[in-house]
Amino acid sequence: MLKFKKTNYIQVPGRQQPTVPEGLWIKCDACGELLYKEDVRQNRYVCYKCGKYFRISTRKRLKMVADKGSFEKWEEGMEGRDPLHYPDYPQKIAGLKERLKIDEAVTCGVCTIHGEKAVLCVCDGRFLMGSMGYVVGEKITRSVERATEEKLPVIIFTCSGGARMQEGMVSLMQMAKTSAALKRHSKAGLLYVSVLTDPTTGGVTASFAMLGDIILAEPGALVGFAGPRVIEQTIRQKLPEGFQRAEFLVEHGLIDGIVEREDLKETLARLIAMHRQPQPGDRYGVQEPKAPYPANSPWKGRVAAWERVQRARAQDRPGALDYIHEVFTDFMELHGDRHMADDGAIVGGIGYLDGCPVTVIGQQKGKTTKENITRNFGMPAPEGYRKALRLMRQAEKFRRPIVCFVDTPGAYCGMEAEERGQGEAIARNLFEMSDLSVPILSIVIGEGGSGGALALAVGNEVWMMENATYTILSPEGFASILWKDSGKAPKAAEQMRVTAEDLKELGIIEKIIWEPQPANVENISGIAQAMQEGIRGFLRQYLPLDGESLSRQRYERFRRM
User: Fold this and answer.
1) In degrees, to the nearest 5, what angle opens at C-alpha 268 toward C-alphas 262 and 271?
2) How many whole angstroms separate alpha carbon 188 and alpha carbon 190?
C-alpha cells in the first residue's frame, strides 16, 4: 500500500541548506554531524543522523527518478535575454553553464519512470538559485506544449528563489506564460505533478509550482511566496517553528502529501498509471458481480428505529477508511483543500477496483479520544467539503468514477465554520455534484446527518447499510424542536422514518446493504465483499454512459423527489 511518509529532522534557524561538497566527509548543517559521503550517497543524500535533506544536482535527480538511459533532453541551447543590460549578466550565465555542465536553471526532456512515459523538468538551485528568467520560462512552456501535443503527463521538480531579478519584468511574464501552457495541458485532460523541493519561493511558487493536479513535497522543503526573512523584516514578528515547511503546507491544506526520496519514483509511476485516460464506454475491466445482490434481509422481524440509531452510532462500527481498505486496493490518500486546511473529518484519494481507478471520499470518525479530536467526531468543516469537491473535480477531469462513504452526525456548527462559509461550502457541493460528468455512488455507512451528509450524497444512486440512518437532523433535535423534549428521541426516530427500509420505501435510496449482524471489526470482511460486488454492478452499469447522460440521470433522480 502506497503511503506518504514524514521525516522528522532538526531545523536550525538561520543556517543555510547543506550542499554536497567534494571529498570523503560532509558536515550536516542541521545537526552538525560529520558524515561519510558514500553513506550519504547510499541514503539518497539524506542525513542519516537527523533526516535532513541535502539539495541535489540535476544529474542526481534524474538518476533517482528516470529509468536508466531513458532521459532525452529537450530545448537545449536556447538563446537568453538581457533586457536590463545588467552588468556582467551574460558572462555570469556562460560561466555557470561551463562550471555546472547544465544548459540553464531547468533541464527538460522526456523519460520513462518504471516504464511510464512522462515529460520531466528539473530545476537546479545551483544556477542563480534556480531563478526563472526567459530561458527557464520558455523551456518549461515549450516542454508543456509538446507534452500536450503528444498527450503525455508532466512532472516538474521545483527549486527556485523566484523570478530572476536581472531580467526584470521579462522574468515576471514567465509566471503567466508557464501557467497558461499548463492550463491548456489541463484542458486536454492530462496529468501534471509538481514536486516541491527546498527551496521553492517567489514567482515560481506563485505559478507552476502550485498548479499541479497532484502536489507533492520532499520532507522539510521550504515553500512560500515571500521568504521567512522578508516576512520577519516586514511585519517585525518572529515566525513559528516549521513555518512554510512541507509539513506546514500539508497541515494547511496546500499540498497533497510529503514523499520521501526512497518512495518517490514508485509514487510517480503509480500516479501516472492511475491517471491514464480511459476511452468512452470503457469499463476498465470491472468484473461481472459473482452473484445477484440480495433484495431482502436475511433476518426476520422488524428492528426499532431507535435501535438502528444506536447501532449507527456504535463506537465499534467500521468507518470510511475501514471500508476503503477492504473494498479497494492501492489506495493513495490525498490531502487538503488547497486554501486553508486538511480537514481530518473527510478523507479522500484514489484506489483501484479490478484495475479501475476510482476516486474515493469518506467522512471519517475516530475510534479513540485522540482520533475523534483529529477527526472532529466526523463533523466536517468547510475545508473538508472543499477538499471533497476538489477531488471530485479532479475525478471528472480524468473520467474516474466517484464513490462516497457517508458517516457524519452533521456538518460542524462551530463559530469558525460559520466564519469560513459552512453553508456556502455545502451548497457548492450540491451545485457542482449535480452536474459532474462521471458516475457517483454514495453509500451511507453509519449516521447520515442532515445537509452535512447530503453534501456527499448527490449521487446517481444512494445506498444505505441496514443499520445506518439518514435524517433531516438528529432524533434528539427533532424531539426538542417539535415536542420541546429531547427525551422523546426514540419516538422521534420512528416518526422521522430514519431507517434504510423506510427510505427505500420513500424512494430516497436505491439499495440496502444487509448486515447479518450489526457491522463491526469481526464481520467487516464479509460485509465489504458484498458491498464490493454491488459496486462492481454499479460501475458496469454506469461507466459506459456519457457525461451528459450521467448528469441528466442524476438530475432526474432528484427531480422526482
Assistant:
1) 135
2) 6
Amino acid code (one letter) for 257: G
| Phi, then psi, of 130 in degrees rounded to 5 | 65, 20
State how far the Cα of 302 lies from the Cα of 429, in Å rounded to an integer: 35
Beta-strand relationship, 116-123 and 154-160: parallel
Q: pLDDT, tens digit, for every residue of 504-524?
A: 999 999 999 999 889 999 999
φ and ψ of 104, to 5 deg: -165, -165
> Angle between the 320-327 and 524-542 helix axes, to the nearest 10 degrees?
70
Provide the β-strand partners of residue 360. 349, 403
Cell of 331: 489506495
DSSP secondary-structure letter at 201?
Answer: E
**Cα 356–chain centre separation:** 18
CA dist., res. 268 & res. 114, Å (int): 9
DSSP alpha helix (H) spans, 337-467? 369-375, 382-397, 415-419, 422-433, 450-454
Written as nine digits, the cell of 523 is 464481520
The partner residues of 469 in beta bridges, in order of sequence, read 447, 499
60-62-65 Cα angle (round to 5): 110
Taking the CB of residue 248, how many other CB atoms lie within 10 A of it? 17
- Alpha carbons within 13 A on the beta-carbon side of 492: 21
pLDDT band at residue 86, thresholds of 50, 70 and 90? very high
**127 grid coordinates:** 544556477
pLDDT digits (tens, 9 = 90+) for 358-389: 999 999 999 999 999 999 999 999 999 999 99
Helix (H) or strand (E) holding 195: strand 192-201
What element of type H or E holds 202?
helix 202-205
Q: Which neighbouring-strand residues pair with 449?
A: 471
How many C-beta atoms surround the C-beta of residue 418 within 10 A? 12
What is the pLDDT at residue 2? 46
Residue appearing with cell numbers 560532509:
26
pLDDT in tens, 102-115: 999 999 999 999 99
